[in-house]
Specification:
heterodimer, A: 114 residues, seven-stranded mixed β-sheet, four-stranded antiparallel β-sheet, 50% strand, B: 109 residues, mainly beta, 48% strand
């Protein structure tokens, strides 16, 4: 089944404790991205990647890191989480196309930073 | 970046047709119009995309007038399971598309 998977789905942590949220897709998509969703603010893009070893900042990259060492994986790293990073996070992927914009989203990771 | 404006919320009843209009007055020549649906605590799901005139798939229709400054997502005969948030996005690719607050559709029995 074509899908985007994220782990963990739920995480409660404490301020300053490094964490990684994994994202994997099995559709051979070049493009992958991370979003966070907060009440009243919609989905905001954190980072995106156009291909292996190619990453770039989205609208809200502060406090996050990403890497793209393999085409299928795009982990989101919080080196020193803070309470304002408590949010619902979504990973997404798609083919790179000039005329077709369907993104496939993962199930989400609900992160709470105490 | 093309800015979009949608109603914050809409109510409907089962079996009715629902039309959600999105305004995008500064849409650029190469921009596409894309709609997503999102259920609570799930990732958005692509519904439909169009450039001009009308596009129809098994889920919805998208109407785009000649000036392309607005678009209307049409959901035929909605059911309770269509209760969700619907997002209108405008752009060439995902790097210049933004998810706004969307339209919260509530379908009542």
């Amino acid at each position: 089944e074509a899908q985007v998977t994220q782990n963990p789905r739920y995480l409660i942590t404490v301020t300053g404790k490094k964490l990684t949220v994994t994202c994997s897709q099995n559709m051979n998509h070049e493009y992958m991205s991370w979003y966070r969703q907060d009440p009243g603010l919609g989905l905001r893009q954190i980072y995106y990647s156009m291909n292996v070893e190619v990453t770039d900042k989205g609208d809200v990259p502060e406090g996050y890191k990403v890497s793209r060492k393999e085409k299928r994986n795009f982990p989101l790293i919080l080196e020193s989480p803070s309470p304002n990073q408590t949010s619902l996070y979504f990973c997404a992927s798609r083919l790179i196309s000039r005329t077709y914009n369907e993104q496939f989203f993962g199930p989400g990771t609900r992160l709470t930073v105490l | 970046l093309a800015k979009t404006t949608q109603p914050i919320s809409m109510d409907s009843y089962e079996g009715q047709e629902v039309n959600i209009t999105c305004s995008h007055n500064n849409i650029a020549t190469n921009d596409y119009i894309t709609w997503y649906q999102q259920f609570p605590s799930q990732g958005p799901r692509f519904i439909i995309q169009g450039y001009k005139t009308k596009v129809t798939n098994e889920v919805a229709s998208l109407f785009i007038p000649a000036d392309r400054k607005s678009s209307t997502l049409s959901l035929p005969r909605v059911s309770l399971s269509d209760t969700a948030v619907y997002y209108c996005l405008v752009g060439i690719n995902n790097n210049d598309m933004r998810f706004g607050a969307g339209t919260r559709l509530t379908v009542k029995p």
